[in-house]
């Protein structure tokens, strides 16, 4: 339920204009200091929390990593509340050119020399074409979403069960990579990656390729590695693309040869075949494979930690609907109100992409709950979604995983779920930067829960953190007698 303290659009014009608090410190040393606070001295959430408390504001100035020498300008205006955050969705107010990863952009040598769709602003002519190419791909594969995903899960759960039985635990993050890659490749290309002789290598290649792009935003958390050495290795200079060049070429060749019908369509739409293929590899590897590596561990963690009572409720809903509908279908998934709510709650409390960036196109005034702030043209705006979607003035018990939060009247609160670079109530278009696969992400999240609770009555997990998300160990699984 929204708090009465949330200002309506009509009352925001009456909010007092306040100077944005905070500063960037001395050149070079200020960004380095903030970087050490962010990664080592405080940690990510504490970095934002301490500054929010210090300035008594959810809007303030700070430097965002990596800073020198990877990014030339680390200065941002930070947004941490649900009211100010959506300015980052307004393409008429903010520019999204080369800001996917924030204050730096990975070398285009990692994407075949092209600036792929994710780095383009909607005002650029190629954006419209590439976004429509993505929509075309999704539309052509719609009938395969469910069967291809489900086909990869028996092997996944068999491996998990075997590891729990033999070792007392199963590392979901490690085990699931093969399933992710197999799903992505089969969905896009229409055939098994083993046919392209890439299956055994694919997951590791994608993981290495992702690491080179995102290492400036990571900390390895290795106690035996001094902070200053890790900082020098990961956050000071970009890792050279040649480290994965030959591996990337293997992936590119596999998609080029296996996704011919998709690439044919890209050419019919006006794309060069190689550019279409490099965008396809990015969509498969960064957006989908990389997205699932963050999405599913978080979902399973929160559902697992919620306990047996929720598990019984989910199992009852899922099995009842599947039986009534005669199988796992789009219609069946749409009728699972609790399952949908659980997925939305997981996306709210631990969004797979927690950062959003945009550069102000013009001088503008933004609003938080209790003040207005002027932002100048050209300033970088940064939103930390993990705080914005846990705004206590919008959500009750925001730090708690509330499985039923988005059921019934709670559906009205979906407009405050921002994980897709847009409101959950909005839809991606060629003119905006909302995730083209938004609905597919929700669908496969529901499918994962359906498959778990068709197989098991309950399960236990242990959670931790990894480079850019959660880690999950299965400790036990109780098989069901449901048929």
TrEMBL record:
The protein's required cofactors: heme
Database matches in InterPro entries: Cyt_P450, Cyt_P450_E_grp-IV, Cyt_P450_sf
UniProt keywords, alphabetically: Heme, Iron, Lyase, Metal-binding
Source taxon at top rank: Eukaryota
UniProt xrefs under CDD domains: CYP74
A Pfam family recorded for this sequence: p450
Binding of heme, residues: 435
GO term, biological process aspect, one: sterol metabolic process
KW Iron (keyword) present: yes
UniProt KW Manganese keyword: no
An MF annotation (GO) of this entry: heme binding
Similarity field: Belongs to the cytochrome P450 family.
PANTHER family found in the cross-reference section: ALLENE OXIDE SYNTHASE 2 (PTHR24286:SF302), CYTOCHROME P450 26 (PTHR24286)
Protein name in the entry: Allene oxide synthase
Organism the protein comes from: Vitis rotundifolia (Muscadine grape)
């Amino acid at each position: 339920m929204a708090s009465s303290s949330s200002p309506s659009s009509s009352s925001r014009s009456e909010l007092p204009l306040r100077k944005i608090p905070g500063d960037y410190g001395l050149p070079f040393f200020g960004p380095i200091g903030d970087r050490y606070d962010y990664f080592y001295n405080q940690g990510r959430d504490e970095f934002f929390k301490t500054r929010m408390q210090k300035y008594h504001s959810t809007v303030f100035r700070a430097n965002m990593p990596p800073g020198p020498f990877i990014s030339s300008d680390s200065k941002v205006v930070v947004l941490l509340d649900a009211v100010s955050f959506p300015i980052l969705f307004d393409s008429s107010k903010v520019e999204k050119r080369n800001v996917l990863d924030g204050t730096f952009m990975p070398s285009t040598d990692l994407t075949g020399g092209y600036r792929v769709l994710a780095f383009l602003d909607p005002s650029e002519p190629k954006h419209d074409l590439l976004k429509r190419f993505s929509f075309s791909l999704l539309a052509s594969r719609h009938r395969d979403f469910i069967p291809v995903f489900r086909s990869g899960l028996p092997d996944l759960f068999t491996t998990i069960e075997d590891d729990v039985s033999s070792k007392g635990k199963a590392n979901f993050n490690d085990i699931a990579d093969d399933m992710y890659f197999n799903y992505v490749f089969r969905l896009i290309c229409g055939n098994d990656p083993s046919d392209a002789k890439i299956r055994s290598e694919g997951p590791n290649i994608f993981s290495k390729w992702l690491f080179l792009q995102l290492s400036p935003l990571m900390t390895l958390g290795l106690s035996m590695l001094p902070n200053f050495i890790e900082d020098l290795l990961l956050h000071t200079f970009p890792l050279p693309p040649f480290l994965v060049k030959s591996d990337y070429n293997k992936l590119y060749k596999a998609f080029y040869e296996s996704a011919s019908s998709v690439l044919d369509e890209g050419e019919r739409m006006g794309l060069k075949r190689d550019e279409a293929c490099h965008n396809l590899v990015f969509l498969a590897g960064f957006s989908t494979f990389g997205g699932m590596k963050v999405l599913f561990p978080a979902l399973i963690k929160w559902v697992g930690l919620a306990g047996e009572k929720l598990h019984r409720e989910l199992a009852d809903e899922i099995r009842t609907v599947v039986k009534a509908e005669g199988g796992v279908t789009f219609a069946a998934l749409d009728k699972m109100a609790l399952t949908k709510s659980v997925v939305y709650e997981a996306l709210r409390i631990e969004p797979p992409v927690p950062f959003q960036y945009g550069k102000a196109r013009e001088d503008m005034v933004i609003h938080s709950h209790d003040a207005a702030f002027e932002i100048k043209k050209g300033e970088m705006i940064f939103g930390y979604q993990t705080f914005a979607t846990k705004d206590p003035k919008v959500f009750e018990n925001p730090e708690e995983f509330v499985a039923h939060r988005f059921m019934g009247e709670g559906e009205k609160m979906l407009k405050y779920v921002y994980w897709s670079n847009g409101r959950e109530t909005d839809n991606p278009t060629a003119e905006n930067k909302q995730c083209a696969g938004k609905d597919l992400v929700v669908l496969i999240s529901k499918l994962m829960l359906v498959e778990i609770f068709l197989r098991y009555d309950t399960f236990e997990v242990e959670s931790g953190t990894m480079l850019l998300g959660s880690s999950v160990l299965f400790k036990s699984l109780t098989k069901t007698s449901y048929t």
